[in-house]
Amino acid sequence: MANFIIGLTGGIGSGKTTVANLFAEQGIVLVDADIIAREVVAKGSDGLKQIGDKFGPQMLTPDGCLDRAALREQIFHHPQDREWLNALLHPMIRTRMLEQLEMAASPYVIMVVPLLFENGLDKLADRTLVVDISPKLQLQRTIERDMVSKEQVQNIINSQSDRQSRLDKADDVIDNQGEIDALQAQVLALHNKYLQLADIKNS
């Protein structure tokens, strides 16, 4: 297991991926729950087979991949199906995350998890880092990035922890409401801090 784990989270549109990639530029290994979540339902996977068995072939694209829009629609209208899906995928994602954390070889590792606190994965982390922006900016950035309706984005925001409770639980916070230079400076300062903390833990 990586000796020092940072749990990185933030609401939708907050810039978690941008922040994580800035840490990666410093040579830090990333374990990204979103990437793993795509892998466990990839074409030919057991996860995808079980989804197809449960909901039928309409959940698959013509080339046999997951039709994400169809699945989103299904679980949006049927909360019990969302629960079923979470019960299927969360253990798969957790297992693969633990495997990747086990193999991570950098001085510390960044574990990127959108629902870090909601799913109790903060328990795996030595420290938690929240990327923070205002709800107004969240809406604006996500609508522009994903080309989705305001209502859809608002539903996702409502399903996540509210901003204040995330901030209350965070050990460290990055403000991502400014320019990229300011973001880089914050990441570099935290990178140096985490190197020191990892060094202390391992000594």
Descriptive notes:
- It is an enzyme of class 2 (transferase).
- With about 200 residues, the protein is α/β, with parallel strands linked by helices.
- The chain folds into 2 domains: about 1-30 and about 110-203, 3-Layer(aba) Sandwich (Rossmann fold); about 40-105, no CATH class.
- Helix content is about 55%, strand content about 10%.
- The protein has a 5-stranded parallel sheet, sandwiched between helices.
- The chain is globular and about 55 Å long.
Beta-strand fraction estimate: 5-15%
Mean pLDDT comes to: 92
Structural class label: alpha/beta
Question: What general outline do the C-alpha atoms trace?
Answer: globular
The CATH superfamily of the largest domain bears the name P-loop containing nucleotide triphosphate hydrolases
**Number of DSSP E strands:** 5
CATH architecture of the largest domain: 3-Layer(aba) Sandwich
Strands ordered across the widest β-sheet: 2-3-1-4-5
Largest sheet: 5 strands, parallel
Q: Low-confidence stretches at least 5 residues in length (pLDDT < 50)?
A: none
The figure for the number of domains is 2
Overall helicity: 55-70%
